[in-house]
């Protein structure tokens, strides 16, 4: 007996309904969450200061998730980003405190290191032909070892200059936290790159069908490497800003961003498009996670509930993404 795909057994009206749900469920869920928390806590939740705080706290996760989005769009996964961000936070504080480098030079070196790590990931995947999950997980493990070796397992705290702290904690324009401004520039730039440039069209083509892209004359390996480089630079920027926010460089400080980034990216793929990864969707996915955590904190939910929520969001996100993709192919 021949199996028939579930989407093909559905009536046209049911497929339209499911298609609408797959595309807009995340946005409806975000709006419903904000409304519910606002009604339950009208004095604490629906305020400008709280919304600004949510964006500020989520800005670093959005930056690292946006970089991951580019790698995922080209059809690869980067599991090294959290470990890389932790290393970069230690490296930038070490260069400033231990080596006495000017802050701009230290930041530039660390961003270059992020690009280098991305390049290494890309070369391993495209030239050595190692699966991206294995390659980036292996590189991430190496980076963890380097982070502990560089810091001897001790946070770099003493001597961090105030100017470096202000990089993340300052408000240099219109009273808006710097992290929000930097996040807006990064996400806006990546959205323009993917959606409004010829290079972005190549990026999407490689992710959609690498074989067809290669026949069309696109340098597939080069595009995949570029995806890893962008992911690496965003991880480096996240590590720098996190170290500035914490006032220290700490091994494993950014490791948890890995799960958050993947949850945001996959949740975003179920937003507005049929299972396609895109920067705007990642932003919406990150906002859902951020407002969910914020609401739990306001109502005094135990810490373990945040991990439960994040894991559940990731499962739902992948399910919605798969549903949207199957409907688009039916």
UniProtKB/TrEMBL annotation:
Q: What Pfam families does the database record attribute to this sequence?
A: BPD_transp_2
Which InterPro entries does the record cross-reference, listed alphabetically? ABC_transp_permease (IPR001851)
Signal sequence residues: none
Q: What is its main location?
A: membrane
Q: Which keywords describe this protein according to UniProt?
A: Cell inner membrane, Cell membrane, Membrane, Transmembrane, Transmembrane helix, Transport
Query: Where would you find this protein in the cell?
Result: Cell membrane
**What topology does it adopt in the membrane?**
Multi-pass membrane protein
Q: This protein is called what?
A: Autoinducer 2 import system permease protein LsrD
* Assembly, per entry: The complex is composed of two ATP-binding proteins (LsrA), two transmembrane proteins (LsrC and LsrD) and a solute-binding protein (LsrB).
Membrane-spanning segments: 21-42, 54-74, 81-97, 103-125, 132-152, 172-194, 225-244, 256-272, 279-301, 307-327
Q: Which domain of life is it from?
A: Bacteria
Q: Which species?
A: Labrys wisconsinensis
| Function summary | Part of the ABC transporter complex LsrABCD involved in autoinducer 2 (AI-2) import. Probably responsible for the translocation of the substrate across the membrane.
């Amino acid at each position: 007996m021949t199996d028939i795909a579930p989407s093909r057994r559905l009536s046209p009206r049911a497929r339209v309904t499911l298609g609408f749900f797959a595309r807009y469920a995340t946005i409806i869920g975000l709006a419903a969450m904000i409304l519910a928390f606002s009604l339950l806590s009208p004095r604490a939740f629906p305020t400008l200061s709280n919304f600004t705080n949510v964006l500020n706290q989520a800005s670093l996760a959005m930056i690292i998730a946006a970089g991951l989005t580019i790698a995922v769009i080209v059809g690869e996964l980067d599991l090294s980003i959290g470990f890389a961000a932790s290393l970069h936070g230690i490296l930038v504080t070490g260069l400033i405190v231990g080596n006495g480098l000017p802050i701009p030079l230290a930041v530039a070196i660390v961003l270059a290191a992020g690009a280098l790590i991305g390049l290494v990931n890309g070369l391993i995947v495209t030239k050595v032909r190692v699966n991206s999950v294995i390659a980036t997980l292996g590189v991430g493990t190496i980076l963890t070892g380097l982070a502990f070796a560089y810091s001897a397992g001790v946070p770099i705290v003493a001597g961090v200059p105030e100017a470096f702290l202000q990089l993340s904690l300052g408000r240099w324009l219109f009273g808006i936290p710097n992290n929000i401004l930097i996040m807006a520039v990064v996400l806006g730039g990546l959205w323009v790159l993917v959606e409004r440039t010829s290079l972005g069209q190549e990026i999407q083509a490689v992710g959609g069908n690498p074989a067809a892209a290669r026949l069309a004359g696109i340098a597939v390996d080069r595009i995949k490497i570029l995806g890893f480089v962008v992911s690496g630079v965003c991880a480096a920027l996240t590590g720098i800003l996190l170290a500035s926010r914490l006032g220290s460089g700490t091994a494993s400080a950014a490791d948890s961003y890995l799960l958050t980034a993947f949850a945001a990216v996959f949740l975003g793929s179920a937003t507005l498009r049929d299972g396609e990864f895109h920067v705007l969707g990642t932003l919406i996915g990150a906002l859902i996670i951020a407002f969910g955590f914020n609401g739990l904190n306001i109502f005094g939910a135990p810490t373990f509930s945040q991990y439960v929520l994040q894991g559940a969001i990731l499962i739902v996100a992948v399910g919605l993404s798969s549903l949207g993709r199957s409907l688009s192919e039916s």
